[in-house]
Design goal:
Shape: flat
Number of strands: 8
Number of domains: 3
Order of helices and strands: HHHEEHHHHHEHEEHEEEH
Length: 347
Amino acid sequence: MAKNQKAMPALDAAKLRENALTSIRLGVEDFQRSQGGVSPDPARALSSIRNLFAGVLLLFKYKIANGVVDPADAAALIFNPPEILPHPDGNGGVTWQPAARFKDTTIDVATIKKRFDAFGIEMDWDVISKLQSCRNHLEHLHPAHTLGEVADFVAELFPILRDFIHVELEEEPAAILGDAWQIMLLHHDFVADIKEQCDEAWAEAGIPDGMSEWLEACKCSECASALLKPAPENVDAGDTVESDDERFLAMCVKCGHRELIAPMLLEALGKSHTYDPRDGEEPTLELCHECDREAFVVLDQACLWCRCELDYTECEDCGDPLGQEDQVNEGRCSYHAHAYEKFMSED
């Protein structure tokens, strides 16, 4: 062993598995307490997310470590490798050598993905990324505002955990997680059933076709749950979101809070069209001149709310693209419209 180089940290794969399952069980226990029926304990919400996400990552690391025979190879796969630094070779050149030792910290999500790709382990990383973002997001919120989001998190985590344990570990979730698994199963099935009912109800609520895809991003402003349904009074009155957006309410199944659905849809659309003018970027979303809603997509030259499209898309004199503000010029850009008006007045 080189001078000043310490031994690689020891890795106990069995202990890794045990810690993973313990974290998941604690996460489910915290989840139950955070929901708590008539007297939920919101402080448990963040703890639930932390434990559940940490447990899943530990289970992923266990799978990686268990894929090799030599414990030293397993440790090398799990612990963060040393930094590679340049050293003079004595002949005017350099050699690249690792620093003293492997770090005591273990690999993060990005590196786990690389290990999985290398070992041919399949995973829906879009869902994992979404759950990671949810975990990071909840770190900055008051616990009372996370109860619905935690419930959604557990429901989305369920199929990932189920498939991974079945396919990759070749075990039965119920056998290794016990009561915690039954709680997750019942919760997932409940959420899936409610979600289906909500989707069916919104399909009859008259959301503009161009805006319907943004419904998935709408969440209750009180508890952050995605389980929203049309308010019964609007449905009974025959209202539609498109025509009665000033009174059409969404009702949260989780906490009962009600709020207008139109601003939520438009906010979700707006977040997908953010831009940075400091980088020279131009806005990709505009206020529609027809319906007065921030739903006119510049690239498509059409409004997602009222389906308004431009009558004139390019200048008949120079071919430059035309925007909403140019429509009054009847097919010309502002420059050529002015030139044409000047010519006509002189004539």
